[in-house]
Structures are given as structure tokens and as C-alpha cells.
Amino acid sequence: MKRQVWLLFCCQALMQAATVGQAVMAALIGHSLAEDKSLSTLPVAIQMTATMAASIPAGMVFARLGRRPGFILGALGAMAGSLTFAAGVWMGDFVLYCLGAVPAGLGFGIAQHYRFAAAEVASPGYRPRAISLVMTGGILAASLGPELVKATRDSLPPYLFLGTYLVLACLPVLCIALLSQVRLPPPPPRHASGARVSEIIARPAFLTAAITGMVAYGTMNLLMTSTPVEMMLCGFGVGASATVIQIHAVAMYGPGFVTGRLIARFGVRPVIVAGAALTALCVAIGLSGESFAHFGLALGLLGIGWNFMFVGATNLLATAHAPEERVRAQAANDTIVFGTVACTAFLSGAVHAEAGWAVLNLTVLPALILALGVIAWQQLRGTRAAAG
């Protein structure tokens, strides 16, 4: 069982490395290619929209064919996205560059199911650790993605980042090779029934998990997407912004080694509340200055806050459905979560361009209040049910 979890860890790392590298480059390339600078984050927004759109088709593929064929399709999509990005950079075509975000987003959306696959191969007692361990594949991605950007950004002059995208296109190929060694559960029986999607969505446990995941990923993406542009406007180079994104990515996935243990010891809700508090602290630091230390510390706290909230939300989701309902529940959850992420990617560039960095930070706070309110609501429901 543990061997399967570590293989899934490696697959997650390879797929995530391309996404972390893209986070370093996308807004900068968009800013350079787009005539309207408020569209600098449009490629990220399109990628997140495609990620959202992938949720339901991915669920259908997983339900009919199983996990392995679905993950292979996701890897092929990520490879096609990197190659299309490369073509857009080579031709200096903003529209073509944006088109690359579609297959890249589809691949990223399918790769989000590695955490669900980890829950399926693990025993119930090991499940929280399995989910968080697979998500720590982002630690390797946090080192690999930005370092590839730094090492290859000027490899094919005069086309900045062209060589990077050609290298990133190789990572999904390695992922497919690893998938051949993973033993994954078969698809659920075709005759399996279970509740309809509308009934699953109406469950308090599902609502709490989906809203928490939505807030965790949406607030993180809102701030992360515009950070390289803000750093550029403050006079920092590509290397500095890549380092900050690297700090952020390590902070996102590094706690995964202990998040599962924290949930097992203290419960999922206290861990989610701690994540919301860390995200609020990120906002406070982001508003207090724009030195390299401010950016690095703020994005580090943002990453840890995201980890606590998102891993907690994933564990809550596992309690919101029966085994035969898992694919429907997971697809519905990721549609909601990544629909929100797509919206924040659209908003990030527009709010940053029109209202500034301070306003962009402040927009995070109402979402955190919403997440804490939902957690308190479900806690109150549980207390009343126990008393009854």
C-alpha cells in the first residue's frame, strides 16, 4: 500500500512541476505579449477554466475505464499544453499562447485526482496521511519547476522561456512511465447506484468540504497569480519572482508530511481554522511592505494556509459520500473548486491592474470569513445532533 502511495507521490510531483513552472512564467509572458496589460493573467484564467471543465469528463473516464487510462490522458494533455505554449512564445502570438492553456488545464484538472486515488489505495486509518503525502509531491515540484525555469529560460535565444516549455513537455512522459508500475483500484461497478449528484451536493459535509476547498484554492490563486507581475513592477527580476514562487510551492506541499498527523490528533476543523488564520496573516504582511522578504514571507504563509485548508477539505469530502458515489462526488467538488479558481485568475489581473496590490490582498478576507462560518455551522449541527 505504501509503495503505491509513493508512486502516486512521484506522479503528482511530475505533473505539478509543470504547473509550478507555469506559475512563474505565465503572467510575465502574458504581460509581455498582451497589448492590454489587464489581460496578463488571462492564460492562467483559461488554464483554470479548463481545469474546472475537466472535472466531469475526468469523472466519466475514471468511472468507465479506471484511474490509469484517465491519468494517462491527463499527462498527454499536459504535454500538448507545454508544446502549444512553446509555439506561442516562438511566434510571439498571445492568442496561440492562450490556446495552450486549454490542454494544460485539462491535464492539471485530471492530475488533481491523484489525491483521491491515494485515498482509495489506502486503508481508512492511513487515509489522511496518504492524501497529504501524495500532495507533498508538490515539494519536489517546487524545487524542480522554478529551477527548470531558471536553468532553461535563455537556452534558445532570443526566445525567452521557449526552451523551458520544451523541457516541461518531457515531464508527463516520465509520469506515464511511472503509471505503468502503479496498482490502482478498478472502476466502480457499472450497476452501482448511490445518490444523485444533486443529493450529494446538498449534504452538509459536502457543502463544507466544497466551500472550504473553494476558499483555500481561490484565495491562494488570487494572490499567487499576480505576485510575479507586482514584483516586476517593484524592480525585481525573473529569478527573484521564481524564488518567491518556489518558497510558496514548498510551503504549499511541505506541511503534507505532518498535516495528516495533525488532523488525526486535533481533528480536521481546527486544522482548517489554523489555515485560515495563516492566510489572514499573509494578507497583513502583504500590506505592510513590498521588499523581497515581504513577498517571500507572505507567499510562504499563504502556501501553508492553503495546505491546511485544502487537505482538510479533501478529508471532509471523503466523509460525504459512499464508495459507489466517489467519482460523482469528486467530480462535483472539483468543478466547484476550480470554477472558483478560474474566476480568481480572471479577477487577479484585472483587480491588480485597476485597483492595485493592496486592494487585491484585502479581497481575500471576506472569503476566509465565509469558510470559517461554514465550519462553525457544521460544528453546530454536529453538536446539536449529538445532544439529540
From TrEMBL:
Signal peptide span: 1-17
Superkingdom assignment: Bacteria
Keyword match Signal: yes
Keywords: Membrane, Signal, Transmembrane, Transmembrane helix
SUPFAM superfamilies, per database record: MFS general substrate transporter
Any one GO molecular-function label of the UniProt entry: transmembrane transporter activity
One Pfam family named in its UniProt record: MFS_1
Bilayer-spanning residue ranges: 44-63, 70-88, 94-114, 156-179, 200-220, 232-254, 266-287, 293-319, 357-377
Protein name according to UniProt: Predicted arabinose efflux permease, MFS family
Provenance organism: Belnapia rosea
